[in-house]
Amino acid sequence: MKGIDVKTNILPHTQAKLDLYKGYLEHYLRVLCHASFCKQINIFDIYCGAGIYDDGKKGSPLIAIDCIRNTREQMMNSGKPITPVSLLVNDYDARKLENVKEKANIQDIEKFTIEYSNRDANEMLDVVSVRVSEYSKDHRNLVFIDPYGYSNINKAQLINILKNNYTEIVLFLPVMQMYRFTEIALNDENRSHYEKLRQFIFSFFNDPINLNSESIFEYINSIKEALSINQKYFTCSHYIERGKGNYYAIFFITANIYGLEKMVETKWALDPIKGKGFKQSDDTTQLSMFDEEINEIEYRREIACFKNVIYQAIKHNKMLTNIELYELTLRNEFQPKHINFVLKNLIKSNKIRETNNVKGFGIDYTNFKDKVIYSKFEVL
Predict the structure, then answer these.
(1) Is 208 helix (H, G, I), strand (E, B) or coil?
(2) Engineering a disulfide at 254: which of 51, 201, 224, 259 sits with its beta carbon 3.0 to 4.6 angstroms away?
(3) Would you say the pTM of this structure is higher than 0.90?
(4) Rounded CA separation 347/304 (Å)
(5) Rounded to an integer, what distance in angstroms lies between the CA atom of residue 264 and that of residue 276?
């Protein structure tokens, strides 16, 4: 990647981030446009960047517009009523904002409005928190926060944005940079250079000892748990490798478990082996004839780990219902199809039993929402 200006071109790790955003946004719009309770959808892109980069690839604002246009076409083809959508794009760099304005072609999109803002990120986040708090319950909001670092990420602002329970956040963080300097930041308070990192850590962790930093992946998981604000919100993470050993991560925060299910579904669509993230490929390495076999082994290993989590949870709690297992599955970033496979395997191997003797386990959002206990599981 030498010689490529990362500010004016989209590199593979950035494309991976945008792919996840696009995948979830497609789910988000499709679900809400079919929901009778939703009368308005509001999307906020806090650090929008350029519309089209020098390499011809689209940035997040134009990706959002494409998703909105495609959803509109689907709704019109199905004869469904059109749900109004608003998009607010903000960037402190006026040149990037002008690029978005120039490239945004929205004349053909019905019931769609776009607003441009040239504010400092902190100011914009405050504006968003006020706006979403003023919207009625039939509005749904998605806030995409892709900062140039972590210094502007404020816990109080995130809580203010989330507290109406009708808003979801997609947050991108340079976790490798944070991971490398956390120990120094916590042990050398005289080094002012790490003050912003200290503020972030002490903001989200009452006791920094709970910040597991044994590996970058444990560190990402610790931040994910902290962003749940004591399990008040549902969260998941998706790592993105920029270069060998250099990781970023996207964090998703929502009060709606169905939103979590759709993000987890998007993660597994992008990473069908582990559902965890994107790793930079080495163009100089030829594909091995054993790649498919290796991928299958890695997938089985992930499912085996998840099976142990489920078995231990049932053993610890004496009994778990389909409702509890649905939430446990999604909090562990697996899909309902995975828990169904795991439960069948555990029953077949005489590890657990289903006490209601039902066909199918009923582990889905509808039963969770309606609090329908369809099945119960206990250890043999």
Answers:
(1) helix
(2) 259
(3) yes
(4) 14
(5) 9
